[in-house]
Design goal:
This protein is α+β, with helices and mostly antiparallel strands. It contains ten helices and 25 strands.
Length: 531
């Protein structure tokens, strides 16, 4: 079936695999004589959507001179078979690439694009499979623990449940179970998924990736798959897109490092983006990349191969490696009661203690950042007024301070119960303005008897690039919860971490500030955060 517009045609086509599965795709291509270089996206959310939440419609790409193929992966959309997540994609990717190159509309040149799940389908293939001519993975990673579902030894809560229920709803739709679909939709729409999400996943998608992740222990490294990409694919021209407030940023940075390590020359942009809200100009940047490697076109003026958005200067910069700067925490016990009491002191020993009482009836909230439902930049001034959040502030800066990489906070902590969380925010308090601009967040979970003994712990933040000006102040905020980004720690192993229950305990943390250290620019940019 063909649908014509003024300059673009489309049709539906399918690939039949040896096991009888049919992979169905929408094809878009220009009017006029082909064949054309091809852009391929393989995705699980219905090929008609074509990731238009972040990308231009396939018809736009076709008008730029490409054959565009949007394929439903196995077991999703109109494709047949059983959906099994990432594990199924390597073989199907290789078969799809061979099929694409055989199409009369394809001139043999193949580029891949897509973000999140669609980013990983670009990268997974069996050994010795022919690589595409270029790839553009966005907002993606290879490690199912550190890049997809956990941070600091804790499951992502809001994100795991929300994404898992989206996939579960697609499966109920395929089965024609409209009542189940409606139940899932209403749970997501009302916000009750934060409470009943696990039960819905177990009932409607018990073999799905999200429910499987929630059954794995985030603190057991060997229980988690880490997908491999052939070196020959990593050496191909690659354009990586990441966002400072995207939960998969570490995965994008890891791919950047892996490609360079095997001799590739990847391009990368990390901008002011959440998972779904990107910055203007990404389509034009992608077009330049695909025109270069699929059509042989080059511009007289090209962008730098690595660009990073400075989130306080509002401009693109090269990634720099400024000297590591350390600060200590200082309080006489009122950092939870008075947001201006606690101090950050440069190059000095920490002093004092601070007590945080975590009441699970009203857990401290996660706002902004890369994991919360309100991801992105945020003013956390009102949040820091809570008396279960300890804040520590520097004096107004006497010189500019550049933050480039992954800050980390180390301090000695003990609790009165065998389990606690450290949920930390790093912020800028601009001179002359009564706001607290959250720059980055980090999380660490501790479970077991060791939580009751004073020990040193390290919390790593989401990577960032930001500049503080003269007169600005730096702030660290420490809480014992980050709901609903992270499930609430019950204070013991008797019940799972998750929404507050009657079995959750009040937990008191003692922060021993002697020996505390905030490192702003350690040489660990893009490295895993836990284990």
């Amino acid at each position: 079936m063909y649908a014509d517009s003024s300059s673009v045609h489309s049709r539906v086509s399918e690939l039949s695999l040896p096991d009888g599965v049919r992979l169905v795709a929408n094809l878009w291509y220009p009017s006029g004589e082909g064949p054309w270089p091809t852009l391929l996206m393989r995705q699980p959310y219905d090929k008609s959507i074509a990731s238009t939440v972040t990308y231009a419609h396939p018809s736009w790409w076709a008008r730029q001179g490409f054959l565009v193929i949007i394929q439903d992966v196995r077991g999703q959309g109109q494709s047949t078979g059983v959906f099994q997540g990432f594990a199924q994609e390597a073989q199907d990717t290789a078969a799809t690439h061979a099929w694409v190159r055989s199409l009369p509309e394809c001139n043999g040149k193949l580029g891949c694009y897509g973000f999140s799940y669609q980013g990983l389908t670009q990268l997974l293939a069996p050994a010795h499979a022919q690589a595409p001519d270029c790839l553009a993975p966005a907002m993606v990673g290879l490690d199912e623990r550190d890049n997809w579902s956990c941070e600091g030894g804790a499951h992502w809560w809001h994100l795991n449940l929300g994404w898992g229920l989206q996939l579960a709803a697609l499966q109920t739709k395929r089965r024609g179970d409209n009542q189940a679909w409606l139940e899932i939709f209403q749970s997501l729409e009302s916000g009750s998924y934060l409470q009943d999400g696990p039960e819905l996943l177990q009932r409607y998608d018990p073999l799905g990736m999200a429910w499987t992740w929630l059954q794995r222990d985030p603190q057991r490294r060997d229980d988690w798959p880490v997908h491999q990409v052939q070196d020959s694919w990593l050496k191909q021209p690659m354009f990586l897109i990441g966002g400072w407030w995207d939960p998969h940023l570490l995965g994008v940075l890891d791919l950047w490092h892996k490609s360079q390590a095997v001799g590739g020359t990847p391009e990368i942009e990390v901008g002011a983006a959440t998972h779904l809200n990107w910055w203007p100009g990404t389509q034009a940047r992608l077009l330049t990349f695909f025109n270069k490697y699929l059509k042989g076109e080059t511009l007289s003026e090209t962008k730098k191969s690595a660009q990073f958005w400075n989130i306080t200067r509002f401009q693109w910069e090269k990634l720099s490696a400024p000297p590591d700067v350390t600060w200590s925490l200082n309080s006489s016990g009122l950092a939870c009661s008075d947001p201006n009491h606690g101090r950050l002191i440069p190059d000095a020993p920490g002093i004092g203690e601070e007590w945080i009482v975590h009441d699970p009836w009203r857990p401290a909230l996660a706002i902004g950042g890369h994991l919360s439902p309100s991801a992105g930049p945020v003013d956390r001034r009102e949040l820091d007024l809570r008396t279960d959040i300890a804040t520590f502030n520097s004096v107004p800066l006497q010189q500019e301070l550049l933050l480039s990489g992954r800050p980390q906070l180390s301090l000695n902590v003990e609790a009165d119960n065998p389990g606690f969380d450290l949920c930390v925010g790093l912020s800028r308090c601009p001179a002359g303005i009564n706001v607290v601009e959250q720059l980055s967040t980090g999380h660490l979970r501790v479970l077991g008897d060791k939580a009751c003994t004073c020990a040193k712990y390290i919390v790593q933040f989401q990577p960032l690039l930001a500049s503080l000006e003269i007169g600005d102040r730096l702030r660290v905020s420490i809480a014992a919860a980050a709901w609903p980004a992270i499930g609430v720690n019950p204070g013991h192993r008797g019940v799972p971490c998750g929404p507050t229950s009657a079995q959750h305990r009040v937990v008191t943390l003692i922060l021993h500030l002697t020996g505390s250290k905030l490192r702003l620019n350690p040489l660990n940019f893009g490295q895993p955060s836990f284990g």
